[in-house]
Design goal:
CATH architecture of the largest domain: 3-Layer(aba) Sandwich
EC number: 2.7.2.11
Family: Belongs to the glutamate 5-kinase family.
Order of helices and strands: HEHEHHEHHEHEEHEHEHEHEEEE
GO molecular function: ATP binding; glutamate 5-kinase activity; RNA binding
Bound molecules: adenosine-5'-diphosphate, the ligand N[C@@H](CCC(=O)OP(=O)(O)O)C(=O)O
Pfam families: AA_kinase (PF00696), PUA (PF01472)
CATH superfamily of the largest domain: Acetylglutamate kinase-like
Radius of gyration: 22 Å
Largest sheet: 8 strands, mixed
Shape: globular
Number of domains: 2
Number of strands: 13
Number of helices: 11
Main location: cytoplasm
CATH class of the largest domain: Alpha Beta
Distance between the termini: 44 Å
Helix content: 25-40%
């Protein structure tokens, strides 16, 4: 008999989490013909209800609105144009909400539908509203079922994928763990459909993802693909939230001892709402390229960014807008609120403070308004 392998600290913390966000993808809830798969939805609800009955609070972030609208509308495949996608989402979301309500009713649990647009997370006043509603639902013992508000979200304001939405919601509700449930049992070092790929059990830092190819397209009914799950896991982990990625078919184990799939360890600590918004939710209006000295000052020593360390400026922004800070190789190393308009900076960059007139000696991005991403 072999000894049981000790669970990693990440898995233990996920198994012990009190407040969880569980994201489930379209391919796990719908048939290939574009209708809801009631049996698979019920199996997911069984697993979530068991965890709720054990005293935990669970937010479900559910995709599937567009996919579930395909068959009822008599369409042959997932629509490509926005108007038809929105029509499909309108029909499918209704079916989805009804199915969750009926399925959770088997456990005498009430569900609350929460449809969010990117604005609800990007604008700080909206962020607080969404936060308040979700918290209230949870304290009332309701299971919130969240999706993007696809019927009104236009191209510019779309989250784009529910993996990212789930990571943002995890922070919003102060979740102790995020579960990403898909149609694949784990992250592999390459697309498993090609064969020969190996499972990655634990990701403890960015280095564990070196050489991992997650670029393969998704299932065809969803949008995200594996790359968006890895990115969502990174967003959650840097905000201090561990992530478990596995298949919806393993939801019972995932919500039980968490000894399945790929576990991503939290790499950062929980950020304040403002810093999280700066790092992940706010839209950037410009880019500042830094020299190596400025990168070291900003990222390692957590100093303000001065004009002397900037080599180039891109974008049309005003003082108060969010910009990305790039290292000399073009990697975004930080984000922050810029103190100058784009038009003011070309005359200042590369010059040290004592060369500048007194009114232009203030920091370009103050340390309090800056979040390092690496
Ligand atoms: N490195 C990888 N590891 C695991 N799956 C991968 C990888 N690269 C691509 N994939 C594919 O990504 C798919 C999951 O993405 P997607 O279909 O968008 O899921 P969902 O609908 O659950 O959001 C898997 O079915 C798998 O074929
Ligand atoms: N909001 C969309 C989901 C888009 C999406 O991200 O889908 P998926 O990749 O399956 O998680 C819908 O409900 O159809």
């Amino acid at each position: 008999m072999t000894d049981a392998v000790e669970l990693s600290p990440t898995r233990k913390s996920i198994a012990a989490a009190h407040r969880l966000v569980v994201k489930v993808g379209s391919s796990s809830l719908t048939t290939s013909k574009g209708a809801l798969d009631q049996a698979r939805l019920a199996a997911l609800v069984d697993a979530v209800a068991a965890r709720v009955d054990a005293g935990c609070q669970v937010v479900v972030v559910s995709s599937g609105a567009i996919a579930a609208g395909i068959a009822p509308l008599g369409l042959r495949r997932r629509p490509r144009d926005l108007a038809t996608k929105q029509a499909a989402a309108s029909v499918g979301q209704q079916a989805l909400a009804h199915a969750y309500a009926e399925s959770f009713a088997r456990y005498r649990r009430t569900v609350g539908q929460v449809l969010l647009t990117a604005d609800d997370v990007v604008r700080r006043a909206h962020y607080r509203n969404a936060q308040r509603t979700l918290n209230r639902l949870l304290t009332l013992g309701v299971v919130p079922v969240v999706n993007e508000n696809d019927t009104v979200a236009t191209a510019e304001i779309r989250f784009g994928d529910n993996d990212r939405l789930a990571a943002l919601v995890s922070h919003l509700v102060g979740a102790d763990a995020l579960l990403l449930l898909s149609d694949v049992d784990a992250l592999y070092d390459g697309d498993p459909r090609g064969g020969g790929a190996s499972v990655i059990r634990e990701v403890t830092g960015a280095g564990d993802l070196d050489g991992v190819d997650a670029s393969g397209a998704g299932s065809g009914v969803g949008t995200g693909g594996m790359a968006s799950k890895v990115e969502a896991a990174r967003v959650a982990c840097t905000a201090g939230i561990p992530v478990l990625l596995t298949s919806a078919a393993q939801a019972g184990r995932a919500l039980g001892d968490a000894d399945v799939g790929t576990a991503f360890a939290a790499t950062g600590t929980r950020l304040s709402a403002r810093r999280f918004w700066l790092a992940h939710a706010a839209g950037a209006r410009g880019r500042l390229w830094l020299d190596d000295g400025a990168v070291a000052a900003v990222v390692r020593r957590r100093r303000s960014l001065l004009a002397a360390g900037i080599t180039s400026v891109e974008g049309t922004f005003d003082g108060g807008d969010v910009v990305e800070l790039l290292d000399p190789s073009g990697i975004v190393v930080a984000r922050g609120v810029v103190a100058y308009d784009a038009g003011e900076l070309p005359d200042l960059i590369g010059r040290s403070s004592h060369e500048l007139p007194a009114e232009q000696r203030r920091e370009v991005v103050h340390a309090d308004d800056l979040v390092a991403l690496r």
